[in-house]
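Rotation project, supervised by the postdoc (A.L.). Task for the rotation student: set up a whole-complex structure prediction and record inputs and outputs verbatim in this book. Inputs entered:
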Amino acid sequence: MLYYIDLVFNGLVFGCTYALMAVGLTLVYGLLRILHIAHAAVYAFGAYVAVIVANDTGSISLGVTTAMAASALLGMAIYRLVYQPLLDYPPYVPMIASIGLLVFMEDGFRIAFGEQGLTFASNPYPTQLHEFLGLTVNTAQIAIIVAAAICLILLASFITRTRIGVGWRATVYLNFAIGSALAALAGALIGLLNNFVEPTMGFVVSYKALAIIVLGGLGSLRGTLIASLALGLVESYGTIFVGRFLDRDAIAFLFLIAVLLARPQGIGGMKAA
Amino acid sequence: MGRLLCFAVSITWSRLCVLMLISLAAIATTPVQAEVKIGFQAPLTGAAATDGVSARIAAEMANEKINSGGGVLGQRVELVTYDDQAKTEEAVFTANKLVGQDGVTFAVSGSYSASGRAAAPIFQKASVPFISAYGVHPDITRSGDYVFRGVHLGPPQGRAAAKFLSDNLGLKRVSIVSMDNDYGQATLEGFKSVVDQFGIKVLGEYSYSLKDRQFGSIVASVKRDSPDVIYVTGYFFTAAPLVTQLRSAGIRAPIVGSQAFDAEKLIQIAGTAIEGVYIVGGLNRDRDAPELKQYLTDFEKRAGYAGENVGASVYSAVRLMCDAITRAGTLEPAKVRDALAATRNFPHLAGELVSFNPLREINMPMNVNVVKDGKFRHYAWIDDLKLLAPPTE
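Outputs recorded:
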C-alpha cells in the first residue's frame, strides 16, 4: 500500500514540474496562438542562471530568484525580438522560429558552459531526508511540490483579479514574464533535485509540455494543470508496470492519444461550437 | 601587326614563366612525406557530446604521440574527424564521406553502439579496417572481417558483474535497473544468462530511457524489493541522478554499476551519494603503467577534467590501428586487417589486450573500481577469461 502512495508522490513531483513548464506555454498559446517551443530553452536557461549564481554567491535561494528574474526578462525579449515581428505570418512561421531558437540556445549553453554540464558546488537538498507518513522524501522533492502549489495558486488568483483593465500589449509581456519565471523555477528545482544542469535538459520537457497543453485543451489553465498531474501519475505508474515494453515517453504519448480519442477538445477545452 | 603579335606572345610567355615559378615553389614547400589517413567518428554535438569530446581529445593525443615517434612506416598519421552526433543517419553519412570523399583506408569509431553499428557495414564493404573503440552492441563486429572492437562486449560485462556481486561481494538478492538502449540491454542479457550459475535471485527488473533523469517510481520499487545489492546499467549522466535518488530514498544496499559510469563527472554530480559504488569494467587508474600515467596527466591538462574510460579506449584503438599497420609493414588494408586479427598482448590503457577471438572481439581481463573518497580506485580484477569469453558468431 505504502508503495502505491510512494508512486503517487513521485507522480506528483513529475506532474508539478510539468505544470510549472506548461503554464507558460498555455499563457502564450492562449493569447497569441503560438506554440512556444523555445520555452524549453528558457527552462534550461533558468537552471544555468541558478547554478552559476548559486556557485558564485554560495546562496541557492539567491540563485533561484535571480534565475526567475533573468528568465522573465529573457521571455519578454523572446517575444519582442522573435515573435512580435512574425505575428502577421501563419502560426507555423513563429513555431519554426521557436524551434530554431531552442536549438540555438541548447548549443549556446554547450559552447558557453561546456558539454559536460554544471553541478551545484554545495547542494544539501537532494540528500536531506524527511520521514513523512512512512515515506522517505527529500527537500528538493518537497520544494518542487510546494513551489508549484504556491505559484499556481498565486497565478490563479492574479489572473481572475486582473483580467479587466490590463491592456493587450502589457498582458503579452506579462504572460511571457510570468511563464518564463515559472519555467526557470522548474528548471532550477530540477537542477537541484538531480544536482545536474545540462545543455539538453529542456528537450524532454519541451515536447512533453506541448503534449500537456494539447491534452489540457490548448489555452485552458485549469485543463493544463489537470493534464500535468495526470501525466505525472500515468508516467509514475507506467514506468513500473509497462516500462518493460514501453519507455516513459511512449507511455506519455499513448496516454495523450487515448485521451484525445475520447475527448478531442482536451480536458479543459470547450466543446467546438 | 607583327610587333603587336610579338608583344602579345612575350606577355603570355612571361606569364607562363611566372606561373611555372609559382607552381615550382608550391611543390618545393609541400612536404614530400605522404600521409596515412585514419577516419574518425565521434559525437561532438548533441546528447552524447560529453563522451564525443573526450574521444576526440584522446584520439588527437594518440595521433600526436604516434607522429612524434616518427609516424607509421615513416609516414605521418592524419586523423580525419567527423561529428556523428551518436545518430545512425549521421554515422552512415559521415562514414560514406570518409570512404568516398576523403579516401581513408583505416577508421576508428569513438562513438556509441548505435552509430558504430550503422557505420561498420560501410567500412566493411570498402575493405577499410575499422575499430569500434567502445561501442558494445554485438552486431558491430558481425558486419564482417574488417570490423574489430576494442572494448568488452555488453554480455561479458554483464557476466562479470554477476560474478562480482555473487563471488566478490557475496550478495545474491538483486534488483536490476537497466537502460533500455543497445548497451543497457546487451549488458543485461549477459547478466541474466548467468544468474542461475551464480545462484543469484532477481527481485525486480526495471528499465529507463537515456533521456530520463527522474527515477522516483523506480526508486520506490527498488525500495519495496529491499534487495541486498542493486545492479545498474547506464551512463554517468543517468547514473548520477539515479544513484543520488536511490540514496535519497534511504536505500543503503551496495550498488554495482556498469562500465559507462566511469567518468569523473559522475562523482562531481552525485557527490557523497556515489561513495562506495562499484563499477564493473571501469578504467584501472592505479595500475603501474608509465603510458597510462602519462596519458592521464596529459588528458587532464588538455581537457580540463580527468581522463576516463571512453578516452582511454579511443586512445588505445588509434594506437592499436597504427601498431597493426607497423606490424603489417604495409598500408595494404587486407594485410593490416590480418595484423589486427593477429594482435597478441597489446598494451591497451585498460590492461593487457590478450588477443582477438575469431569474431574480432577482445580477450582481456576486466577491472572493477570502487568510488572511495571521491576517487575511482581499483577494487578487483575479474580475470576468468572463460567467463568473459566474447561470442564467436
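Student's summary: Strands of chain A lie at 129-132, 135-138.
Supervisor addendum: Chain A touches chain B through 43 residues (CB under 8 Å).
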